[in-house]
């Protein structure tokens, strides 16, 4: 599907804020208001829902603090990056290599419920579209977990890096 990644993310944050994160603060960091991409809308929706709901569920560290969730978009002619960070409990070092395995849960989750399936779904949603997902190091502001999903920029847009309408190409050649 051809979609504007920036408004897609904005809408998804708005929906998840209402359903799960009304006590959380959300920020969207983006170089501009428009990034036209060709991605499967359903897969992207599942991917973002799982990353953002994790960020909500595992933040903040203490109940009397506020959970912060940041979505950061960046892109160039070849790649699109979507980074989701939070200020929550973070991922213990010994868990980092297993985090994308189905049913794996780290040992610092305490009573926070989960089945350990979300991130394996995120990985599949990324890979099915030629993308990757990696765990990234915490920052001072977002000292919890951070994930970056990277997609290759669609061929149709590589011909047209200025984000204009896609160039029509013959089908089946
Ligand atoms: P569910 O299947 O409901 O998503 P889950 O959240 O436990 O359950 P995953 O989303 O696959 O499963 O995440 C796997 C594990 O990775 C979690 O159990 C948790 O230990 C860790 N994890 C994932 N995201 C975060 C996060 N934002 N902060 C801290 N730990 C996280
Ligand atoms: Mg999850």
TrEMBL record:
Coiled coil ranges: none
Residue stretches spanning the membrane: none
Domain Histidine kinase: 1-155
Protein name (Swiss-Prot/TrEMBL): histidine kinase
Organism name: Romeriopsis navalis LEGE 11480
């Amino acid at each position: 599907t051809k979609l504007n990644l920036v408004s897609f993310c904005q809408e998804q944050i708005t929906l998840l804020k209402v359903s799960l994160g009304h006590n959380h603060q959300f920020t969207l960091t983006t170089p501009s208001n428009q990034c036209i991409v060709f991605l499967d809308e359903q897969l992207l929706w599942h991917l973002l829902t799982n990353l953002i709901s994790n960020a909500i569920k595992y933040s903040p560290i203490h109940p009397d603090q506020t959970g912060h969730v940041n979505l950061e978009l960046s892109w160039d002619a070849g790649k699109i990056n979507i980074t989701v960070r939070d200020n929550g409990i973070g991922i213990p070092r010994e868990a980092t290599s297993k985090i994308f395995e189905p049913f794996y849960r780290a040992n610092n989750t305490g009573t926070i419920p989960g089945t350990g399936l979300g991130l394996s779904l995120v990985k599949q949603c990324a890979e099915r579209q030629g993308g990757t997902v990696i765990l990234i190091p915490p920052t001072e502001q977002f000292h919890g977990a951070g994930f970056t999903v990277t997609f290759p920029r669609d061929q149709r847009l590589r011909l047209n890096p200025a984000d204009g309408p896609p160039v029509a190409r013959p089908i089946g050649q």
